[in-house]
Write a structure and sequence with these properties.
alpha+beta, eight-stranded mixed sheet, six-stranded mixed sheet, 21 strands, 33% helix, 14% strand, globular
């Protein structure tokens, strides 16, 4: 409601999607993430190290224990291929590169890269599918490799029903043009959002005109509560999520055998313009039949699985099952390192089970990521593998917890059943089993491990000097770190060296040695979340947080979709309570066009709001239409401009308004994980980030 420091802060709206940051550049320059030495297997960083002897030995044992003789995924990955597009880059409307498959071409040389877990390299190659594919002849098509998610086209009587139109408009538009150029021009007659993550709806403006949606000509179908969840999953922690996303997804790390190689459910995330058009049809029943353009579909509501609001789709006349993101080619995250509420592993298993038994005669399985499977026996093999592992992780993590195994022990105790370890569909490329079982205990028991010493732990920077002192100072720790690294004991090395880095942030020898340990752990990990996290932080320890421009995932569509109450709640987060001591006031906010009213109160250094109430004796009443408030929120206009134009009215004392604007905090997604890694300048975050208006906070520009 008030001009915010967020106007230039780089705050990126959480679930919509802090997960998805990329680094666009001008059209005149090459993609900075494209490493010309990647094809040679050379390291992108001057201080980078090759795979160590311990890592090579681990790779050897891993390769011996995995079913590389099972190549069915490669056959399925190729099946139905029709055409490759005549381009490897898609430009954003703003002039930078929105999508670039060229930067991953080093993976197709047939080389075995020692710095990539062999199972992950296999997955990374499978995710190089790029072009138009026929899933079911003359009925179902997919454009793959244009974004993190596939764009699926269902052929109706007169046009295309588009399932999950990617993250941003430009790749979605390119995909629609590509399929029309290849198979013949057809209009879009429907859109389906499988769930509430932005890579499944953000490109909608690339495939449909909002006027056609609002005019009732093109329905948009989504699960119940989609809009609320698409906005709110992580709004309140959005800036922190932006930073963590850069780590988990390594979006500004060079694409190189020693850097970013894959995102497990796709190559990466497009960096174009995200949008959002609100759904017009809500799926609220457990199973709900809807027909669009002559195509009969049964939607299976699957809340509290991969997303808080999600659904699968059954095509009964074709025996084809669309699994959204509930079943892909990897075990997913129960807890995602970027930050989100812990997911329900048991319920996820139950929803897969419901699909198995309600759609038992399915002959085609396809999804918003990865590649399809065909044939009932093969499909059931994949579905049961994922059903069983989600259930096993849940049940056995709690089995161990009920025997006293703690959140800090379970990842070293739990083992995936051997029969599942040897199934590619049950490998943890996106999620990580170690992370998931800890998350399950956290969901049921919380983060405390039962040890009173951990009830009120000291911050790392506070306890680290004592550890360093007790270990005899920096030199013995460095010597031990080198010894541990040489022995391949990288986890132990990381434990002691991280203490030294927190105690002595400018000790570059310690930072480099810790980076060496993290780097080898990255090479050794099958999960992209773990690999990227280790490698991104290794790079930061060596040379600081890399500058880059984050894709602006919170365009005007997303901001306008926020409930006024959500926006007011976020004001309570953005204000610095320490600066609010002694402030006491109330403000009425009235938005006549949608008949809303709110009472905003500052009390005990805390900002609260309640919908449906106003006070006759409030110090200030602000009246403006919600449509005009949208203009303030996206930074198009200021409250003062609206007041001058006659679109906003202030009645009463402006002191509360001025006091609140004086205590709002700038959030930027470049805070340090390890001390002394910040750049001299803040990380740019694109134009018009989510913001609360014009010049009321111009004092902090």
């Amino acid at each position: 409601m008030f001009q915010s420091k967020f106007a230039r802060s780089g705050y990126v709206l959480g679930s919509v999607m802090a997960l998805l940051l990329a680094a666009p550049v001008s059209a005149e320059t090459a993609n900075p993430l494209l490493d010309l030495n990647a094809a040679k297997g050379e390291h992108f960083h001057p201080q980078g190290k090759p795979a160590s002897a311990a890592t090579l030995e681990l790779r050897k044992s891993v390769k011996a224990g995995l079913p590389f003789e099972d190549e069915r995924d490669f056959e399925e990955h190729r099946r139905g291929f029709l055409k490759t597009p005549p381009f490897t880059k898609i430009m954003a409307d703003a002039g930078h590169i929105a999508w670039d498959m060229e930067s991953y071409q080093f993976l197709l040389q047939g080389k075995d890269f020692p710095s990539i877990h062999p199972s992950l390299q296999r997955q990374a190659i499978l995710n190089m599918g790029y072009g138009l594919y026929e899933v079911l002849p003359d009925k179902i098509y997919q454009v793959r490799g244009f974004d993190l998610a596939n764009i699926t086209f269902i052929k109706g009587n007169t046009g295309w029903i588009v399932f999950d139109p990617a993250t941003t408009a430009e790749p979605a538009r390119a995909a629609l043009k590509f399929i029309n150029d290849t198979l013949g021009e057809r209009p879009v007659t429907g859109v389906v959002y499988s769930h509430s993550h932005i890579d499944h709806f953000g490109g909608v403006r690339g495939v449909v005109d909002e006027a056609d949606v609002r005019g009732g000509r093109v329905p948009i179908i989504a699960p119940e509560h989609f809009l609320h969840e698409a906005i709110s999953e992580n709004v309140f922690a959005g800036n922190a999520m932006s930073r963590r996303s850069r780590i988990q997804y390594a979006t500004i790390l060079a694409r190189n055998p020693h850097g970013h190689v894959d995102q497990s459910i796709g190559k990466n995330v497009s960096a174009g313009a995200p949008g959002l058009i609100a759904p017009t049809v809500s799926v609220s029943q457990p199973f709900q039949e809807i027909s669009v353009d002559g195509v009969k579909m049964v939607f299976q509501n699957t809340p509290d699985t991969e997303a808080p609001a999600g659904m699968n789709t059954w095509f009964p006349e074709w025996k084809a099952f669309w699994a959204g993101e509930n079943v892909t080619a990897t075990i997913h995250n129960i807890y995602t390192l970027r930050g989100a509420p812990v997911r329900n592993s048991l319920n996820w298993s139950k929803e897969i089970n419901a699909a198995i038994y309600n759609f038992a005669d399915m002959e085609v399985l396809f999804a918003s990521h990865s590649w399809p499977r065909w044939g009932n026996a093969r499909i059931m093999e994949v579905l049961r593998a994922q059903r069983d592992l989600y259930a096993n992780m849940n049940n056995q993590a709690l089995h161990l917890a009920n025997q006293g195994v703690t959140i800090n022990q379970v990842h070293n105790t739990y083992e995936v059943p051997e029969s599942l370890q040897r199934q590619w569909a049950a490998r943890s490329y996106h999620g990580a089993v170690k992370n998931n079982v800890r998350a399950i205990i956290n969901r049921f028991l919380g983060f405390w491990d039962g040890n009173p010493a951990n009830l009120d732990p000291l911050s790392p920077a506070d306890i680290a000097p004592l550890y360093v002192e007790m270990m005899g100072g920096a030199q013995p720790i460095l010597a031990k770190g080198r010894e541990l690294n040489a022995a391949g004991r990288y986890r132990e090395s990381g434990e002691i060296l991280s203490r030294l880095v927190f105690a002595q942030p400018t000790n570059q020898d310690a930072r480099n040695l810790l980076a060496d340990a993290f780097e080898q752990l990255g090479y050794q990990n099958e999960s992209t979340s773990f690999r990227n996290t280790y490698l991104q932080l290794a790079a930061e320890l060596r040379t600081g947080i890399a500058a880059g421009i984050a894709a602006n995932a919170n365009g005007p569509d997303v901001v306008r979709a926020m409930a006024t109450e959500q926006w007011l709640d976020f004001l309570g987060i953005s204000m610095d309570s320490r600066k609010a001591e002694g402030m006491h006031w109330t403000i009425n906010l009235v938005t006549p066009d949608n008949d809303e009213k709110f009472l905003v109160e500052m009390s005990n250094a805390t900002l609260t709001n309640i919908k449906g109430f106003i006070k006759s004796d409030a110090e200030l009443t602000i009246t403006l239409n919600r449509s005009d408030l949208d203009q303030v929120m996206v930074g198009a206009k200021t409250f003062e401009q609206l007041e001058t134009e006659g679109h906003a009215r202030f009645e009463g004392d402006r002191r509360p308004f001025n006091e609140l604007r004086s205590i709002l905090t700038v959030f930027t997604p470049d805070f340090e994980i390890f001390p002394a890694t910040a750049n001299a300048r803040s990380v740019p975050t694109g134009v018009k980030p989510f913001q609360f208006g014009g010049d009321l906070m111009s004092v902090v520009e």
